[in-house]
Design goal:
This protein is α+β, with helices and mostly antiparallel strands and 98 residues long. Helix content is 19%, strand content 37%. The chain contains two helices and four strands. It has a four-stranded antiparallel beta sheet, covered by helices on one side. It is globular and about 45 Å long. The chain starts with 8 loop residues before the first helix and ends in a 10-residue tail after the last strand.
Length: 98
């Protein structure tokens, strides 16, 4: 997992153990530091998860990364789950400097 900067062990561990395999959290909210390090800002537990709350927690004028275990229905009625990566970067902001 590489998003343009160095990914600390804390985030790799949260991603691998809690989001990808353990499914104990539904999303990770991260930011890029001035030293090109990805920093974990918040974890969102699976129980009581609100997708809209993740986006409400993103500052309007700052860039953020979101890793989310996104669940959606397929045409055949089954449920699919994919881990999606979302980059939020407002117009006029430089992501590498946030």
């Amino acid at each position: 997992m590489n998003a343009g900067g160095s990914v600390p062990e804390e985030i790799q561990q949260a991603y691998n153990e809690k989001l990808s395999k353990g499914k104990t959290i539904k999303a990770l909210l991260c930011r890029m530091t001035l030293k090109d390090q990805i920093e974990l800002v918040k974890e969102y537990p699976t129980e009581g998860f609100d997708h809209e709350q993740v986006f409400a927690d993103i500052p309007e004028n700052e860039c953020r990364y979101v890793f989310e275990d996104f669940t959606f229905p397929k045409e055949d009625g089954s449920i699919e789950s994919k881990i999606v990566y979302i980059l939020y970067c407002p117009i006029g902001k430089f992501f590498l400097f946030k």
